[in-house]
Amino acid sequence: MQIKYLFLFLVTITASLGGLLSGYDTGVISGALLFINESWDLTDYIQGILVSSVLIGAVIGAATNGVLADIFGRKKIIIATAIIFILGSIFCAIAPNIYILILSRILVGFAVGIVNFVVPLYLSEVSPKNLRGTIVSLYQWAITAGILFSYMINAIFANAVYNWRWMLFAGVVPGLILLIGMLCLSDTPRWLVSKGRYEEAKKVFNKIEPDIDADKEIEEIKSTITPYKTAKKFHFKKWMIMPFVAGIGIMFAQICTGINTIIYYAPTIFKIAGFDSNLNAIYATTGIGVVNFLMTIVAIFLTDRTGRKPLLYIGLTGVMLSLIFLGCAFRFEEILGDNLKWIAVGSLVSYIVCFAFSLGPIGWIIVSEVFPLQIRGFAMSICTLSNFAFNFFVVASFPVLLNRIGGDLTFWMFGFVSFLCLIFVYFFIPETKGISLETIEDNWLKNVKPRDF
Fold this sequence. Notes:
With about 450 residues, this protein is an all-alpha fold. It has helices spanning about 5-40, 45-65, 65-70, 75-95, 100-125, 130-155, 165-170, 170-185, 190-195, 200-210, 215-230, 240-255, 260-275, 280-305, 310-330, 335, 340-355, 360-370, 375-405, 405-430, 435-445. The longest helix is centred in the N-terminal third of the chain and has 35 residues, at about 5-40. The chain is globular.
């Protein structure tokens, strides 16, 4: 990062802590569940509710706060989210029974739902167009860092007294850092312009990109807002359908190719594949987290160089082949014997490698770029809502599929979905590398086909 972008770098790191919190609270339950079940001897039904409770809260958070981000600003919503994360983590740690724990996890999920649209939105609106993919990729990297952090905390506290309580409480620390950091930052220049606060927007532009012609940027943003402001009432236009197809579609691809079956159930998959103890399964899962964290760096360096779609093509192909291979391993488990667990590890590592540099970060990049400014907060909340709705369906159905049709058919099904997503990316996802947010909006307005951007 060049010296002139130092302030932008600090803004990015601070805001991306929201991703770390999201990843932490997503991943921590995978290990904590093993010990929570020992404390309270939960039924399968209650375990399912506990695991999916974060997703229930996330759906509510994503559904209710998009308009608020447009009204009150991105910064204030992130600050409120940090406070909710802190309180939710504390309530989880001191929960006296499973029902309070579930309610506390729903509260944490509410924050997860908000942060997954408002932080990429914030980052995309403060980013120079030549660095936007890199900067929004840092959000996904922060999510993978949070997941890895949760796996490491699970391993550290696995043999401690009150182990799962410490695991859930540890989310307070990054929550406090996010809260303090955001109190010191400004809102995005694009949101400030939308509220007529031009001088504030100019100051922010000059901080994040010193060489920019701030007045020219402000006029360009104002030109995209003017048609909405001159209208007596906002009306949804036909040309706005395609951004929603792209945004919701890429969320489907990100989730329904099976990523959260790995994040939530990796220890369970490893135990089915032959790992003989909770701790060994957690250690194997930590290895998956390390790979996820490291390979997301590839996207950070390549997204603004090679483009979004080439990485999606390569990643989706690798995801599809990994799932097919994993399904074959489960089909021939009797022949493979003890080797099954190592083939399972290899297939999951391959899957994570391909997902981490493609669908993981680029999904959030796309939804942060494709919507017009006037409805960007609302539209991103809809995409985030769809993400968690898909997530809930996949996470809730995975154990049923695994028990009813077996690991082979389950993973082959996810592989077929990956193939369909490859076709979708070709026809419906635009290449947005190096294009300003205002130009992207103008292309939709002129009915340019996504593959011709």
